[in-house]
Amino acid sequence: MFINERTKPKELLFYEALAARTALTKREAKDLSKMKKGYEGEILYDQIFESIGHDNVIIYRDVCLNIDNSVTQYDSLIVSDKGIISNEIKNFSGTCTVNNGNWTLNNFPITKVPFSQLNRSVGKLMEMRNISQNDFTVSGKIIFPNDTFVFNSDDHSNWNKIILRSGLRDYFRQFNHSGVRSGHKAQYISRIISSCIVDNPYFTLQADKIRLKYGLYCGQCGSFNLSKKRFHLTCNKCGSNECNETHMLRALSDYKFLFYNELMTRNSFLEFIDNDIPVHTVSRFLNKHCFQHQKGNMSNYTFKYFDFDDATKKSDAYIRYKDY
Question: Within a 10 A sphere around the Cβ of 159, how many other Cβ atoms?
Fold first, then answer.
């Protein structure tokens, strides 16, 4: 079973919010494309796993574990009574060649060697096991879910470390065998993992306010050319209508990831949306969709939800005036 939702990486949400409000540099556009492709590979992995079924195992997705004061990110951890299997997901496309330990992808060298990343992540899990003074197996695989990916290696032992798209369904089916269970031992291992989960400490991106276009933008086409109605904003470019609450949730999510380490006050948020929504309406939505810290002039807010998509899914984020 999936223990947690897989959310977009914070870096991806940052670049998506940044792209909505300014022209990206070549480096930023490259990073956005890379993050988006990586996330698409993770979603594909989840979809295939879901189609096969996973009731016999416990699965953690996209978690950071603090093990002996060192934080490691894991794409997928599969837990059973036997132990933990780490799956590192690489959404590579094209031809990958491994020759004398050197990796190239489409004739370009790969600086972050997947096997090195896997060895480190598995090594940290072994360290976690040893610290807990427990006995369970720890192993790992590199998963290549893209069906356009071709792998060549001069070392045949490398094939034991990877799973290609053509073998992914069979790989997942092994977890449905009667001998695989998530009983008391798996529950114990799961508690150890859960006790190590921390927020991602490596997210340090911060937007330059001078570059940003302030205001609200259309969720369909991205235009800032909107006309105000009583409860909605109409896009003058594509004609779509979104209610004030939808715009607020999107802007709150953008603000969160563009200025992740900054306090958000009512005035700073009003400036961010260029006062496109009346202050009394903004105050009401802040109280509804944010946690308030302190009172009076020192008041600041944090978004209740992970991101815009999360907010629109939650029942307590019910939008009275629908988009159309």
Answer: 12
What Å distances lie between residue 47 and 50, 51, 145, 162, 266, CA to CA?
5, 6, 11, 19, 40
CB 170 within 8 A of CB 118: no
> How far, in Å, CA of 167 to CA of 148, rounded?
13
Q: State how many domains the chain has.
A: 2
Residue 35 covered by a domain: yes
Boundary-marking domain end, from 198, 219, 243: 198
Bridge partners (DSSP) listed for residue 152: 97
Q: Between the CA of residue 162 and those of 139, 233, 247, what are the distances in Å? A: 12, 50, 43
CA–CA distance, 39 with 34 (Å, rounded to integer):
9
Are 75 and 175 contained in the same domain?
A: yes
- Torsion of the alpha carbons at 252, 254, 256 and 261, rounded to the nearest 10: -140
Q: Would you place residue 53 in the very low, low, confident or very high pLDDT band (cuts 50, 70, 90)?
A: very high
Residue 27 buriedness (CB in 10 A; 0-12 / 13-18 / 19+):
exposed
Question: How far apart, in Å, are the Cα atoms of 304 and each of 22, 64, 256?
Answer: 26, 21, 10
- Using one digit for the tens of pLDDT, what is the confidence trace for 94-144? 999 999 989 999 999 998 899 999 999 999 999 999 999 999 999 999 999
> d(Cα 149, Cα 102) in Å, to the nearest integer?
18
Look up the domain containing 254 and give its range. Answer: 209-317
> Are 167 and 247 found together in one domain?
no
pLDDT in tens, 56-85: 999 999 999 999 999 999 999 999 999 999
What is the pLDDT, as a whole number, of residue 294? 86
Model confidence at 248, pLDDT cuts 50, 70, 90, reads very high
Q: CATH number, domain at 55?
A: 3.40.1350
* 119/265 same-domain check: no
Helix/strand/coil percent split, the chain, to 5: 40, 25, 35
d(CA 116, CA 91): 17
pTM of full prediction above 0.90: yes
